[in-house]
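hey so i finally got around to running both of the ones u sent me last week. sorry it took forever, my laptop kept dying halfway thru and i had to restart like 3 times lol. anyway pasting them below in the order u listed, first the sequence line then the structure token line for each. didnt double check formatting much so if smth looks off just lmk and ill redo it

first one:
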Amino acid sequence: MKIEEILREHKKNVTPERVSIFKKMQEFHIFSARDIEVNFPEIPRASIFRAIKLFSQIWVLRRVSLEACLEQYEVNSHTHHHEHMKCESCGKILSFESDFLCKLLTQVAKNHKFKLREHSINLFGKCSECCN
């Protein structure tokens, strides 16, 4: 994903800070603003939060709600949609794909004359390692 092209498409400025921040985001599966701050102490915190807000608005970031009181994100892959499972014992986050769930949710939205843009499903429980 070329962030420079996406920013230009949305008529947003391409800045070295935005490009650097986005490249760092791509290294994570799921991350918080703090994860980005730690890697860029020279970039003001406000700039990081503005970049996160912008990237969310233009749909290159997707908010992931896996922990109360912690905003987490992942780079939005429009070609590889997946859901998440979080182990409540060890904290491991697993991803899974389900065509069945995607089709079901699309049909539910259609039945309610609702234009679905995105969906997110998070499962919580124990991973196989913690169950043993």
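and the second one:
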Amino acid sequence: MSTKTLVWLGVIIGSVMGQFVPTLFGISFLSAWAIVGSGIGGILGIIIGIKIGNRIN
């Protein structure tokens, strides 16, 4: 897979996981914390996608 594909997968998976984490603490899925978590998860997904892409290529 190309690095670009891995970065997009990281963004999607990271955003979903980041939005889901606040719900584990009883906070609404559509709260501000869920949006913040989604953003943080997306950023972490980008970083992880780039690192995996660089190792593969």
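quick thing i noticed on the 2nd:
The chain has a mean pLDDT of 93.
anyway thats it, ttyl
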